Amino acid sequence: xxxxxxxxxxxxxxxxxxxxDQISDAVLDALFADDPNARVACETLVTTGVVVVxxxxxxxxxIEIPEVVRRTIHAIGYDEPEHxxxxxTCGVITAIQAQSPDIAxxxxxxxxxxxxxxxxxxxxxxxxxxxxxxxxAHRLARRLSEVRKQRLLPYLRPDGKTQVTVEYxxxxxxxxxxxxxxxxxxxxxxxxxxRADLRRLVIEPVVPTQWLDRKTHIYINPxxxxxxxxxxxDTGLTGRKIIMDTYGGVIGHGGGAFSGKDPTKVDRSxxxxxxxxxxxxxxxxxxxxxxxxxxxxxxxAEPVSIMVDTHGTGRLSETAxxxxxREVFDFTxxxxxxxxxxxxxxxxxxxxxxHFGRExxxxxxxxxDRVGDIKRAARHR
Length: 381
Known about the structure:
It contains 10 helices and 11 strands. The protein is an alpha+beta fold. Helix 4 packs across helix 5 and helix 7 crosses helix 9. The longest helix has 18 residues. The relative contact order is 0.18.
């Protein structure tokens, strides 16, 4: 039996980088609520007591950005000045300009807003057709936030991190090697209490027992203390958690971030489309695992390349699968935006706990509505 370990991590919505992502997407949603055709590239920096929002926005509407920023921070849970970062007291600096007219030349005629490559993936490992390590890490991080918001553990604060290491046997999930949970907490909270509470209320409700054994390592606040957290402990930036936003490092990544970008930016929209196509291919039984890469040139509508890798699990050749993709799916920016209905204020929800695998959040790229079309196209290959 061939064994290997693979690890993925996640963070809570109170992690400084995720605070920045959520602010960027909250600005995008606020603009889209009144102007669905707005062009937005919004970047955020957060640190002790300060938020900086910068970028390029072209729109027919107006929003009060500091108000959006404070509302988002309050919803995350930073509402006490003693945390070093609070919705009511932080400074908000904005530096917004219009989109470059050179970029607009290509976008206005339906082309891609930039060059680059984007990836998508699906696998039979979980019901959501996502890799197990990243799905468990996200569930743990989300549960950590739920416990805090429900006041089940009143000493918890918004920041937190999780990590899951899976041992694979011949490419299939065998067991869990390690689970790590680090939780931001109030001063002078006994470590023994934190570890007992998080095992009982966070780990045990989330991690299936069939993957745990006597050799599984469980680490809870392994340094012993996590009293200083959030933007007071670490500067946060939009787009610095792109691996946990996607597939936890299982496949390649083009390098482009998602949050704060309107869907004319193929960094975001084409990555969503790649996930949608890969998930439909796996759901249709074409492969057990499917990785897709597309690439664009700025101002050009059709992708310059489409690559498929089924990692040896395909029922058809990868050349045939690429032909099916080109036959069934429209990869032009306009086609992606229309089919996935991307001109809606739905992006703030994506900015924490991953953009993929969340079937209950109304994300259109998680639909498997093209399975029938794929099967019909496959009959002719």
